[in-house]
Amino acid sequence: MKNLVISRKGFDSTAGGRASPIFETGEIFSVPIPQKKQSPFRYRDLQFNDLAGQEILNLIGAKSISDKDFCHVDPLLSERIGIFGQAGGAQGELDNCGIERGDLFLFFGWFKNYHRRGPDLHHLFGWLQVEKIIKGNNEILNFLSKEGLSHPHGTKDITQYKNNTIYIASKNLTFSDRVRDLKGHGRFKKTAQELILTEKDKTRSRWRFPQEYFSDTRNLFRNRLKWKDRKNCLVNCMGIGQEFILNAHDNPSVVDWASHLINMYGRD
């Protein structure tokens, strides 16, 4: 693995405007952002345990969104094949950093325990290791059709996405012996302190990485992240941006961190 991408997805302050829920059971669910143009999915198609899409929207207070509205279910981590789509400038960043087969995405978003009036958190919720990268509308549509799958980046509207790309998950994880028996994509089912990026009692964009894995890193940040306090492994995740790319090639301890998280919290 050369790159570990910490990728922001789901409801945020501009798309959706509410945090995704941490339920009383500790389970977590990333609510996909709204999509103005046609999508294969609407909010009424969402289901989490016994909760339908409208019930999830009601729980988090997303009053401006109806269950009839289209939503952008991406990354797709619940199907037999894991798929993540990207386009535009964010995809340009991934291209510029040479994201390739074997690299790992860890997905995070804005979460909150509404029942306990908990704090706003940046929380990891899933992963995907790259097996294949498919570029271009026709190529993406052909792949999805062949596999009998739907995905928001599979569209005939060539004006919808520039630099349209999807990342296909490997069947099983390959970057560490500790996780080789786990699928190449999946979701963290429940909250855990180690899955929370946000430093305790700070705003959600003030991150603390675990010193055990990050204190001796070098040339770690490949795009926008910078150390705020390197000694204490503090980072400010500020401003607009979806993809935060870490240099895993020169920092095997970061790979160990990802391995630990998935091995500990990615099992059913």
Q: What key attributes describe this structure?
A:
5 helices; single chain; alpha+beta; 17% helix; three-stranded antiparallel sheet; 268 residues; eight-stranded mixed sheet; 16 strands
Q: Can you give a write-up of this model?
A:
The protein has 268 residues and is α+β, with helices and mostly antiparallel strands. It is 17% helix and 26% strand. It has five helices and 16 strands. Strands 1, 2, 8, 9, 10, 11, 12 and 16 form an eight-stranded mixed sheet that branches. The longest helix has 14 residues, at 252-265. The chain is globular and about 50 Å long. The model has no long low-confidence stretch (mean pLDDT 95).
